[in-house]
From TrEMBL:
It holds the Pfam family DUF7033. This is DUF7033 domain-containing protein. It comes from the Bacteria. InterPro entries: DUF7033 (IPR054297), Glyco_hydro/deAcase_b/a-brl (IPR011330). Coiled coil: none annotated. Residues 104-192 form the DUF7033 domain. One of its GO terms (biological process) is carbohydrate metabolic process.
Length: 452
């Protein structure tokens, strides 16, 4: 698509977005060079007169400007200077009142459209070794605003303009929340592995690492994993995770792998195993959620995601687990926009929470608020909700990615992102694998991050 105009369906979707943010039915009218925001029954309007064609294109190779909120009497939620992806220099002032129309000379809604629909990454070839669009290819990373929820920041400024234009209306208030989730890649370190592998692991414990305790634990846990996961299993952190969440009044979501499309990268358990069924029942009984973690090779194969979703729902039905909503996250965060998007919707899912980058933490979609998905290729609004992922623990800790290690620096980085979510009253979405508690420090970092 070329030009800088929105299609009628994109305008409808943007109106829905404005309604979700501000609680009012604004109308958007597309004219040749401007987009006009109106409130039915009012003479006043807001005109966006600097529409940008880059926000209707799949590319990251254009410049980024910035805008100082206080210079024009506005209050920015995070930092006074807002990053403003734009091909052209921003005019000053950015917000101007003329007659009955207030002009905003920056394409805030174009930015929201481009970031939220992930149009930037459609059809891209600069992918990583897992065929993912990596953070380092993104405009946000290249212009150092990946750690800023810029769509939320700009919508807060737009809210302040709206209050100037229509002082009599109340805008919807949002409240900060935390959403914690756990991809169950490995529910057990030993329980589901063949004896040959256990033998090799035991040899490693004894000869390489010289830990007699682990040497003895391995066969003990392997034999003891029958109807339930063994209490001595290092990866069986589920009860502890639920304890921590409950202590902070949070609900954890656990996403299970229900297929095997890659012999190495997928899970070693079958979701029908009695110990997994038992785990699912326990999660449900304690009031936490269950969801799907589609296997490695499914992200371009909607029919497989559907099969795996059906398998999970069948097992849950057999265990008497009923949930009002279903969703989850792609294994390895593999995602091709918009194929994977439609796959989730076609699998009957209500939400997806894949969209963060594996290689850098932050705001891949420019927001930490849930929003309805939109396919920028077919120009189709969907009922599927996107819940952006802000932090995956290994993204911050592992040397392959940001590499801060299990350290104060890692904790500080995660807390900074959490703080920024709270400053825009969004949701801090944190993924921490049940199998990723390498030591006591790791556990205490996790607990510290969840503390209010
Ligand atoms: Zn995974």
């Amino acid at each position: 698509m070329t030009g800088h105009n929105f299609t009628p369906t994109a305008l409808c979707w943007l109106e829905a977005l404005l309604h979700a943010r501000f609680g009012h039915n604004f109308e958007l009218i597309q004219q040749a060079e401007t987009l006009i925001l109106m409130l039915p029954g009012s003479e006043q309007s807001i005109c966006f007169d600097q529409l940008q064609s880059v926000f209707h294109q799949s590319r990251s190779d254009f410049s980024c400007q910035s805008w100082k909120a206080t210079a024009e009497g506005f209050v920015a939620p995070i930092e006074d200077k807002l990053p403003a992806p734009s091909e052209t220099k921003l005019p000053h002032p950015l917000v101007e009142l003329k007659d009955n129309c207030t002009f905003i000379h920056y394409d805030i809604l174009g930015l929201a459209y481009w970031m939220l629909t992930r149009l930037e990454e459609v059809g891209r070839a600069d992918l990583d070794n897992h065929l993912r669009f990596p953070a380092i290819s993104s405009h946000a990373f290249q212009h150092e605003y990946l750690d800023r929820p810029i769509v939320d920041e700009w919508l807060i400024i737009l809210g302040q303009v709206i209050k100037r234009v229509w002082p009599q209306i109340e805008l919807k208030q949002h409240k900060f929340s935390i959403k914690i989730s756990h991809d169950v890649d490995s529910p057990s370190l030993y329980g589901f592995k063949p004896w040959l592998t256990i033998g090799r692991m035991m040899a490693g414990h004894l000869l390489k690492r010289r830990t007699l305790r682990a040497f003895l634990t391995a066969p003990y846990v392997k034999i003891g994993t029958r109807k339930q996961l063994h209490s001595a299993d290092p990866y069986n952190t589920f009860d502890w995770l639920m304890d921590v969440s409950e202590a902070s009044n949070l609900r954890s979501s656990f996403y299970f792998i229900c297929g095997r499309t890659d012999p190495i990268r997928d899970a070693d358990y079958e979701p029908e195993h009695p110990a997994i069924r038992n785990l699912m029942r326990s999660i449900h009984e304690r009031g936490h959620d269950i969801g799907l973690h589609p296997s490695y090779g499914t992200f371009q194969k909607p029919e497989l995601i559907k099969q795996e979703a059906e398998r999970l729902k069948r097992i849950c039905a057999e265990e008497g687990i009923k949930q009002a909503e279903w969703g989850g996250r792609m294994h390895y965060l593999r995602w091709e926009q918009p194929i994977t998007l439609h796959a989730w919707a076609d699998a009957g899912m209500h939400y997806d929470t894949t969209l963060g980058y594996a290689d850098r933490p932050g705001f891949r979609c420019g927001t930490c608020h849930e929003y309805p998905a939109f396919d920028p290729v077919k120009q189709k609004q969907m009922t599927l909700k996107i819940r952006p992922l802000v932090v995956m623990e290994c993204t911050v800790i592992d040397p392959a990615y940001l590499g801060l290690g299990i350290s104060q620096a890692a904790e500080k980085r995660m807390k900074l992102l959490k703080k920024r979510c709270s400053l825009v009253e969004g949701t801090f979405s944190l993924l921490w694998h049940n199998s990723y508690f390498k030591d006591a420090t790791c556990k205490s970092i996790y607990e510290n991050i969840l503390k209010r």
